[in-house]
Amino acid sequence: MTKFISEPKVYLVSRPSVDWEQVAAFLADEGVPGIPDSIRAGDDESAAVIEISARLCYMSYGRGRRDIEEFVTNLLSSKDGSVFEHVNYGFVFTGVSRSLTHELVRHRAGFAYSQRSQRYVDETDAPFVLPPALAMMDGDAEEAGLIIKGALEAASESYDRLVEVLQAAIPRDKFESRTDHRKAVRQAARAVLPNATETKIFVTGNVRAWRHFIEMRGAVFADVEIRNLALRVLEELQKEAPLLFGDFTIDELPDGTRTATPKYSKV
Ligand SMILES: Cc1cc2nc3c(=O)[nH]c(=O)nc-3n(C[C@H](O)[C@H](O)[C@H](O)COP(=O)(O)OP(=O)(O)OC[C@H]3O[C@@H](n4cnc5c(N)ncnc54)[C@H](O)[C@@H]3O)c2cc1C
After folding, report:
1. What is the pLDDT of residues 114-168, one digit of tens each?
2. What do you get for the CA distance between the two ends of the chain, in Å?
3. Residues 47-70: pLDDT tens digits?
4. What are the residue ranges of helices labelled H in 116-223?
5. For the chain, which terminus, N or C, has the lower number of CB atoms within 10 Å?
6. Domain 1-16+87-136+195-267 classification at class level
7. Is the CB of residue 109 below 6 angstroms from any atom belonging to ligand 1?
8. CA of 102 to the centre of ligand 1 (A)
9. pTM value > 0.90
10. Extents of the domains making up the chain
């Protein structure tokens, strides 16, 4: 029975952390004011990393702007983006399509990726991600749904059949291990898997990179599936690091989808 998915799952699995003892030791060694006079971000570790790195440039601990919101906003508005690269967040995304991850991995600067392999992992029971357009249509949604689901079921059957046939057709003795033989079978059989095939991906990005990704993929001209994901990521990061992502506004379009727009573009 082929499974279909309509919504991604988004797990925020890693976040920055500060070793306050080491920060205090550094400040003491340098003879500058200690915490909290030097670091106004206090317990907000995401903003603290930004503040510690930015203040190091001018050794301005204990001097200058006292309000952390004003401090971070000044960095954003003056496009002092490099300090935002010190703060990393890691997400696991599941229930996303291969077409989404193909677009996602085009974002190079500041990102690291680990994606489920179609060569090592069997895709026999792989679910498929339905395009969000299906839920947005007024007329003929039923017919479009039948066409899409029919095509995906046929692809799934072709994959299963191909695996069976290739297992017998590709000589086992040409490979050192069973794993290598299985890999040869799966890497050939995946040729018939469509863009809609579900995949899972671990993505770590720094704040500068995530801001750029959300700006590009949260815009109205982005594909609806990746736009939905960008909005979900933004919602998590706005809770997690409000000072670093609070300038994005979220709007709802007449078709029910949403967009994200930053006040400070491409920091
Ligand atoms: C709506 C939409 C439609 C698209 N359509 C297509 C399409 O039809 N075909 C297609 O091929 N792609 C398409 N793309 C992908 C797009 O061209 C980019 O590859 C993708 O958005 C990644 O963004 P980026 O180039 O800013 O790279 P990122 O890796 O996110 O880099 C961030 C920034 O770092 C800098 N940077 C990164 N790498 C370099 C480098 N090597 N040299 C210099 N500066 C660098 C740039 O300033 C860049 O903007 C589309 C993207 C969107 C949002």
Report:
1. 999 999 999 999 999 999 988 887 777 788 999 999 999 999 999 999 999 999 9
2. 47
3. 999 999 999 999 999 999 889 999
4. 133-136, 141-169, 178-189, 207-217
5. N
6. alpha beta
7. yes
8. 12
9. yes
10. 1-16+87-136+195-267, 17-85
